[in-house]
Amino acid sequence: MFTSARDDERPDVLLAGLLFHDLVLTGLPKPPAAGEEIWTDGMGCGPGGIANLAVAAARYGLSTSLATVFGDDVYGAFGRDVLAVREGVDLSLSRTAPDWDTPVTVSLAYGDDRALVTHGAEPPYSQDELIGEPPDARTALVHIGAEPQEWIEKAAANGTRIFADIGWDPAEQWAPDVLRQLELCHAFVPNEGEAMAYTRTESPEAALRALAGLVPVAVITRGPEGVVGVDQTTGEHAVVEAVATDVVDATGAGDVFGAGFVAATLAGLPLVDRLRFAALGASLSTRSRTGALAAPGLAGIAHWWRAEGSIDPGLRKQYGFLADILPADAPQAHPAAPTTPRNPRTSTTR
Q1: How far apart are alpha carbons 103 and 295 in whole angstroms?
Q2: Alpha-carbon dihedral of residues 216, 8, 295, 189, nearest 10 degrees?
Q3: Are strands 104-110 and 113-119 parallel, antiparallel or unpaired?
């Protein structure tokens, strides 16, 4: 069952990264042209960035510890309220920065695509400053980049299993040195564009073979084409199709996949079911607005599974493992993202 280990006091997941306030507009027929105004009836807001992973993990029943920086503004207070009070994320490693604005991203979603505009500045505290000596944790979900984070190496040395993703290189240099950080990792989960660019290969399959020589578990997400993965610790190789759905907003779907893969790994599932569980959660997240608050969690997965007659028989057979791992009582559904921030109940600073 997807629950935190009862006899293990360590956090299930340790996270660190930049938090945003996301404002998502959906239902646009097309992106606006210069000088054009488009009205839409779809809007949602909520914490984004690293919050996408934190909420997704917490909603899978994982005890989640987050190190981030909140601005001392209404968006920062709203983000704290959502994460700590509503989602149960441990923020003891996080800080509120005086005279620093929470970064804001506006997302314009149209069709299966989106455009983003962001305002913000570098936070006054680095990840290493926030975490210091990392606490013992069962896993850590990290983003690797050009500048290695010292805390990740320390966490790996402590026995924390590191699950990593990587970002698009805006300079398109794709420095192969970045992949040396995979020596610290248990699993690496890039998308197919990133995987092929960093490995300098021409297909996801070739990229997977290259990555399999660098990290025990390599997974490549392919959007609507599904996902492929290999686990050298078990000798498994799997290809999983995406679960088709009507996309409202794809913001944060990759983060939901990552959190789901960690949850399924901690549950001890075979590789094909780990990929299926993660892919299902990512697909269901695109049905709602905003990344973090669209995460389906166990409630969304259970609702999908128990919707008799609405699941294709082939899918029901593939996802039969859900009957053994979902809680007997259907969890309460998570509320939709609000259109505007609502009365933050906490504004505690550290």
Answers
A1: 21
A2: -10
A3: antiparallel
CB contact set of 342 (below 8 Å; sequence gap of 6+): 78
pLDDT given at position 6: 55
Write out pLDDT tens, residues 53-88: 999 999 999 999 999 999 999 999 999 999 999 999
Backbone φ and ψ of 193, nearest 5°:
-65, -45
Residues 235 and 132: their CA atoms lie apart, in Å, by 36
Residues in CB range of 93: below 8 A, 6 or more apart: 16, 65, 66, 67, 130, 131, 135
**Do the Cβ atoms of 199 and 177 come closer than 8 Å?**
no
Q: pTM here? A: 0.91
- The Cα–Cα gap between 115 and 127 comes to 28
**DSSP assignment of 79-98:** HHIIIIIIS--B-TT-EEET
Cα distance between residue 62 and residue 64, in whole Å: 6
Structure tokens at 280: 């299902």
Q: Supply angle C-alpha 292, 297, 299, rounded to 5.
A: 130
